[in-house]
Structure formats: structure tokens, C-alpha cells
Amino acid sequence: MHTAANIILPSPDVPGPYAVMFLLHGLSDDHTIWARHTSIERYVNGLPLVVVMPNGGRGFYADSPQGFQYATAIGVELPALIRQYFHVGEKWCAAGLSMGGYGAIRLALDHPDVFKSATSLSGALTFGHYPMVGDDAWAIEFARIIGLDPQGGPNDLFALFSALEPSARPALRIDCGTEDFLIDSNRAFHAFLEAEGFIHEYEEHPGAHTWEYWDEHIQSALAFHRRHLGI
Questions:
Q1: Is the pLDDT of residue 135 over 90?
Q2: What is the C-alpha to C-alpha distance for residues 110 and 156, in angstroms, rounded to an integer?
Q3: Number of structural domains the chain divides into
Q4: How far apart are CA 223 and CA 211, in angstroms?
Q5: CA separation (Å) from 20 to 64, 136, 160, 206, 224?
Q6: How far is the C-alpha of 104 from the C-alpha of 166, rounded, in Å?
Q7: Are 100 and 26 in contact (CB under 8 A)?
Q8: C-alpha dist (Å) from residue 137 to 74, 98, 150
Q9: Residue 212: pLDDT band by 50, 70, 90 thresholds?
Q10: Nearest to residue 170, comparing CAs of 121, 217, 114?
Q11: Mean pLDDT of 77-90
């Protein structure tokens, strides 16, 4: 099927080759949302950076056994298109919020040879790590994406991280509001990374699952990527 991605390009006076940031949306949004609810275009103004905002539907950026193949579409096919159409180099990173925070870290763990750093804002980081239980609409929808017992499989961030050689692991930053309903998920993944002895950035700030929070903290995420990509 045809799908869409919104792209922010550098000003013509900014020389390439450009770095690339995949910026992923959450469960209830689409590829237009970051530009509509934050000042991301202003924050990247003047940088040698192409910002790619793809439509990931409600698929958690995964290849579903009973549905869309978002992991392939966004992790393999879209990067190939970006390289064909734009003057980009080898400095790539990923960022996202909520479902997209999970997706950004997943993208970097799936393709560490491409995405050198990943940042999650209010991410659903334990999605795919625990069994799907219950017969409510959420459990039924998500089980179609990851199955009933996903732990240790291709949708489990904990397993994806453990499978990588230490030298291959991308730089990671995790950021969540203390009033966010996903705070325990973020703390659990942070504790796992600490137990693994993996140096990463982790921050909690006052705030909930809101655009006010993400508009503010995407700026810290961008600064993290600039440091690791050297832009």
C-alpha cells in the first residue's frame, strides 16, 4: 500500500552530506503530528540534518504476523529511499515519543550499523517484553502485532539489546515525566541497562504524557544526537 512520510530538509545554504533523524510518532498520531504540535522545524533550523517523520500506523514499528510490516517498511525500505532522493551521509539517529520511543530504540537495536544513537520520550519500552494477557480491546489489538508470549522475541527491546555485541550497541537516551503513565516502563528498562553495565542517559522530569513535555524535551534529545553524530 502507499503510505507517507513528512520530511524537513535543511536550508539550501547548508552544505551536505546531511545527517538523518527518523522522528517517530505515538499510537494515536501519524506522520504529521510532530510538525503540528511541536516546534521541531525551528529546533533543527540551520543544522545539516534531514528529519524523516514516517507514518507507523498503530503497528509499534513491528512486522506483524497478521498485519502490516512496519519494521521492514520503516527500517529497511524507507532508509533506502532517503539515500536515493537526498544528499545524506552515514550519520543517522532515531527519536520518538510513546509508541515511537519504543520504535526509535527498536530501530537502532535492529539496525545498529545505520542508527548510531536513539532517544525515547515517554517510551513504551516494556512493550513486547511481557506476555499479553486479558481479552480487552488493547490486548487483542497488540496480540495481533506481537503474539501472546513475545518475551525474548524480535519485539522485545531487552532481548534485542542483549543480542548485540557491546561494541555494536547504539548510544541511548531515555527521558520520561514523573507523572507519565509509562514511567514504570521507563524505569524498568533503565534498571535493565544499568544491570547490564551499559552507560546511557536517563532523566526524569516533572510532567505527564503531553505535547508540552515532548516539545520541551525533544530539544534535549536533539542535543544528545548532535553530540553523538558530531553535527
A1: no
A2: 11
A3: 1
A4: 19
A5: 26, 38, 23, 30, 14
A6: 19
A7: yes
A8: 26, 19, 18
A9: very high
A10: 114
A11: 98
Residue of higher predicted confidence among 144 and 179: 179
Print the domain residue range for 219: 5-229
The residue ranking higher by pLDDT, 148 or 213, is 213
One-letter amino acid at 209 equals H
Question: Residue length, the chain?
Answer: 231
CATH number of the domain at 216, please.
3.40.50.1820
Least confident of 43-57, 116-130, 133-147, 194-208: 133-147
- What are 154-169's pLDDT values in tens digits? 999 999 999 999 999 9
CA nearest neighbour of 6 among 37, 194, 27, 15 = 37
Q: Residues 142, 145, 147, CA angle at the centre, nearest 5°?
A: 85
